[in-house]
Amino acid sequence: MEARGTADPLVVLEDVTKSFGDEKVLRGISFACRRAETTVIIGGSGAGKTTLIRLIVALERPTSGKIIVDGENIVGLPERELNRIRRKFGMVYQYAALLDSITVLENVAFPLVEHTKLSRKEIEARVVEKLRILGLSSNVLRKYPAELSGGMRKRVGLARALMLEPPILVYDEPTSGLDPLTSRMVDELIEEMREKFGVTSLVISHDIASCMSIAHQAILLIRGEIVARGTPQELAHGENAVAREFFAKSGVAL
User: Fold this and answer.
1) How far apart are CA 42 and CA 216, in angstroms?
2) Does a structural domain hold residue 102?
3) Are the C-beta atoms of residues 201 and 169 closer than 8 Å to each other?
4) Strand order from edge to edge, sheet including 89-92
5) Looking at residue 4, what is its pLDDT?
6) How far is CA 175 from the centre of its chain?
7) What's the predicted TM-score (pTM) here?
8) Residue 202 pLDDT greater than 90, yes or no
9) Residues 29 and 46 in one domain
10) Which domain holds residue 245?
11) I need a labelling partner for 226 at 20 to 30 A (CA). Which of 64, 112, 117, 184 fits?
12) Does some domain include residue 1?
């Protein structure tokens, strides 16, 4: 898999730690996500994946270390500045996390309503265009999420995440609870977003098949520490015994 982007990093973590009271959740985390590439963070429950993402998107502050986003260390920035940083990220949640009580148009338009002063007509035009790029017609605008298929909901969730044209898309367990066929469709969507929009993708997952399919870089997190990093093939077949065992136990043909 080739990346279109340059090799310079867009997100860099340097010796990041996070503690809640006496509990150390993350210990000395260091890695870089390169532009227009996909980094997949894998690990079992309790590994610290969710906490790590919350730190990167500036929803939590680390106990120590640096988090550099687009050349700027965000640790210690005031809340007003953090809001500016958060706009660099588009979040794609498990099950799309759409609001069931409002239409597709209202769901996708939400970031523009919140963060811009565009007119209602301009907002609707942008929503229609994003949905069109993602293979959905304007017929879905007045529908509610419950009226859509699982695959369509994923695309609507992606459209919403892309409305502010963020350089980084963060996916939280995007294939969780999906059958293998739909999971691979989501993998294709992640790759499609990277190719069409040049976004840098950061994926939290326990899906080894997905990791093998989309990752330029895979990071194995166990009990708050990075135990291996490299291409999926390097983790599956390399010298790190912990990583080899983790991949082997997945049951995925490597």
Assistant:
1) 13
2) yes
3) yes
4) 89-92, 168-172, 200-205, 38-42, 217-222, 225-230
5) 44
6) 12
7) 0.86
8) yes
9) yes
10) 8-88+167-254
11) 184
12) no
